[in-house]
Amino acid sequence: MSELAIALIVFSCIFGSALLGLFLRGMLPEHHLSSESKDVVKLAMGLIATMAALVLGLITASAKSSFDAQKSEMVHSAADIIRLDRVLALYGPETKEIRDLLKRAVAFRIHLIWPEDGSAPGNLDSPEMTRTAEEFEDKIRELSPQNELQREFTARALQIGRDLLATRWLQMAQLSDPVPLVFLVVLVFWLIILFGTFGLFAPRNATVIVALVLSAVAVSGSTFLILEMHRPLEGLIKISPDPMRYALSQLGQ
Description:
Distance between the termini: 44 Å
Shape: rod-shaped
Radius of gyration: 27 Å
Largest sheet: none
Number of strands: 0
Strand content: under 5%
Order of helices and strands: HHHHHHHH
């Protein structure tokens, strides 16, 4: 199910509970709507509103942190790719084949994550990418350093290659970490109670309904943002390919 569909379901549940509250208002006995009853309900709803705000803030902060971490790792990967290419260039012309392999691997990764037709990313954990990474490391090991400087460059290239591979596995692990479903379900349940109470004690007029609609849109919109940020490589809010494209433009120079 898409993020937009989930956000629409959340909006429907929240706003539907407010409309149900407006409908039930005319069915309640008058003493249920007394000032004393309203005061008690306001206290209870204040508690629920506070808990809902805290949970919403925690989920939003978690989603933003996850998005920023993925973005930072992508930028660091781009920088490491450039570093790796320069180290291989300093080693000597013997590394031309390895540098060409690196350039092809980066181009393939960009095409896989950010397809030119705007479609969803391909399988980022594909066996082909894993084999390419292992082949790349094997070719570096096959180099025959002739002096101390080349041995140093070989060691540095192997280390950067391992760092890139470790970052890739870390990104895969983070992408497989979904939004805590229980948090969202509990949050939506609290909001349904809250909006139902809003409708129960609100007068029936256009201003109230518009206010409830806008509030429901704001809350469902935050749900949409949370879900979007947990999928940083697709959707409306996604990581820019510019760092990787810049790295690709620098390879082989």
